[in-house]
């Protein structure tokens, strides 16, 4: 009997853990939870002015996200040197000026460099630009044969012809559909991109990438409150901005941080930590990006920390299956971007990223834009598919899957024309 009870108890416990880790795609299963108020301090004080927001609330939220979610950067590290590897004022059939610039960093007898691919519209002086990472190397975003191929570690991808974790000609142009270069240039914007693996390879290994340059003696991995990979990639975006401040061909005051998916989480964190970014775009960023964690819809904190243990700081693991303990939610990450323009975009078939949670996050962040008399998302009702809301805080849900499409770029350009340019 005893044996029978303990056996059924084990089966019960096992089924519970399976139930717990099942992915919720049903709105009726979203738990009730209190959305933390962006304008109420941790001590319960109401924030009703820009001054109080900037002096009290913004810093405490930023501090919390640094220590508990993305991880703080242990030291400052500036560009040691940069080299223009290549430039051509007649690129893309005469439509663009192209530059490829390597930024180098040195510390602890170690060095790291990453390369920015920059296209600028030929007719414009000091144009604004979109800056965003790519997943498989700068040469994948275009068929332009002059784009240099990265030698950094890359995830294999059969359909892109990527083998042995290294890149070659086979993958050139494989991701052109995600980068509407012609549209961007025609609208008078520049485009800058970096292969994210050059800043930190996307593996659960902290011996490589930028982290190791900033270790203390005998340190082999970040401390529980120190930077994971998302914070490392965001750091790289800020260093690219440092470079733009030195490059007279670009307008460093008008750089928009763009990113898709894990790199959308990255652009949001870059915009939150570096107020020099003039605007931020989150394309399908989902869990740990724009989506509210407490909804536990689609990907959850537990799932993301399980599959990608290196993306956030170790402290974030305290919230695995324990969202209640989080005193913030992702709308407060978005609020750190105020009063600058922010665009959150979802895709209908991208339920893993919780489109409704991304929308609500933009909605709940909006009172902070109101403080600055800027227009956020005013209604809690989600717009219909392919009916964008354009204001300082913009949102759309387009038809289709997890991706970046021309439709997304057309909307980003329209929004940038009005709110950033
Ligand atoms: C996975 C991950 C997401 C992430 C996505 C991506 O699906 O679970 O959190 O956004 O990869 O970066 O493509």
TrEMBL record:
Keywords: Hydrolase, Serine esterase, Signal. Residues 1-21 form the signal peptide. Transmembrane segments: none annotated. Residues 225-370 form the 4-O-methyl-glucuronoyl methylesterase-like domain. Pfam families: GCE_fung. GO terms for molecular function: carboxylic ester hydrolase activity. This is Acetylxylan esterase.
